[in-house]
Amino acid sequence: xxxxxxxxxxxxxxxxxxxxxxxxxxxxxxxxxxxxxxxxxxxxxxxxxxxxxxxxxxxxxxxxxxxxxxxxxxxxxxxxxxxxxxxxxxxxxxxxxxxxxxxxxxxxxxxxxxxxxxxxxxxxxxxxxxxxxxxxxxxxxxxxxxxxxxxxxxxxxxxxxxxxxxxxxxxxxxxxxxxxxxxxxxxxxxxxxxxxxxxxxxxxxxxxxxxxxxxxxxxxxxxxxxxxxxxxxxxxxxxxxxxxxxxxxxxxxxxxxxxxxxxxxxxxxxxxxxxxxxxxxxxxxxxxxxxxxxxxxxxxxxxxxxxxxxxxxxxxxxxxxxxxxxxxxxxxxxxxxxxxxxxxxxxxxxxxxxxxxxxxxxxxxxxxxxxxxxxxxxxxxxxxxxxxxxxxxxxxxxxxxxxxxxxxxxxxxxxxxxxxxxxxxxxxxxxxxxxxxxxxxxxxxxxxxxxxxxxxxxxxxxxxxxxxxxxxxxxxxxxxxxxxxxxxxxxxxxxxxxxxxxxxxxxxxxxxxxxxxxxxxxxxxxxxxxxxxxxxxxxxxxxx
Length: 544
Fold this sequence. Notes:
Layout: E1 60-67, E2 77-85, E3 95-100, H1 108-119, H2 122-127, E4 128-133, H3 150-158, H4 167-187, H5 189-192, H6 197-210, E5 216-221, H7 223-234, E6 239-245, H8 250-254, H9 263-266, H10 269-287, H11 299-312, E7 315-318, E8 324-327, H12 329-339, H13 346-360, H14 375-383, H15 395-399, H16 409-419, H17 423-428, E9 457-464, H18 473-477, E10 483-491, H19 501-513, E11 521-524, H20 539-542
Helix pairs in contact: 6-7, 11-12, 11-13
């Protein structure tokens, strides 16, 4: 989901901040609270510098206070951190463009500071202040944490596998999930209790008023499309333009369709990843020598054999600091899933499978020293130590329907594995900790999802998306009276952002002129998975 990127080759590293100027609220702007509540005070934004780093100089940063509980608008408040890249041509400025990078739990401040100058067109940057904000409970916005310190959380999560495979592992995994749920509710109950997407939408409407916009212009990726759908239900008359890429079908995520499956299975990520896996193997075979996996034989046979071996014969790699890192079946599947987020990472993934194939083969000659870990695994391992608390991604626990049957997860996982080998099992275990949550946000919105927005909305779907499967795109578009669905023929997650010049032009035209393309439009990705990199470019420079 997510657009939450957690592997280096799929991620925009969070390293930035921003600056801004006091803006008064629009007196005529509609109220952002709930029906029957007093009129909300619109916060004033005092934009300022984001810090001494040279790369942050173009940005402005600020924080504001919003009601923790919109039923008590004059009660305790929650901090929301923001950043903006001011419009480069103020004379032509249309307003502000709000963004959400996905998740749940994706911080919007570093997202914008990393990508806004590179992946949004000059025309878009000229006419909009581009705004990112860390949603409540995330990043610098009073994060919901599960342990008193980062070190304690890192130690606890480091003892939990990516997902369980054997019956013994399943029992331990369920017990660990229950323990984690208790820890999160003990450490951050006040934040988790008001953590729903509906309250994030209410926050965003207050922020819209605070920047002086009469109506909202918004682009959301992955989970950000669920935030967009929620905002549309709460504030259908406050919308200027919505661009939604990598659609998370609201009824799947929320459980309002009545499915009694774990949320990870409901949103069909296993099926999406399985399709991406087949595409990886197909494109690798077609690429010949450009895909290193072909040197060992048929890519499918080699990869399946390697994954089978890793179940009983994990391999050991050496990290840059000299420490050892063991890769088992579950970790290999997890890293593969993450690499599918961008086809630019396919060559690196092929190299990883080659390494694991050689190391897991008992007949292969053993190296005298443990080989060095490839970059994909190094990035994943390093990010375990960052204190982006797991609590920041627990919105499903307090706003979506659960199965009520935590001990049935092994059966759910078995069924998912039948539908989507390897990846169905992995994704079916997502959200197991939610089964032990005693907290719910009573302000959460769970449907119905058909909305009354009059303006055309722009909906992107990528044909081979591992995280928000393409099959959800048309049903999502059908929720809107006038949705213009654009299919991006390609691979990866939310690929309108830097992956297709065609999609980029459609997005710019729509947001700047409100002219939406015809429903059913198709765009191509700019490059195929194993195409050589442009001269002077690196994978890191191309991947979002």
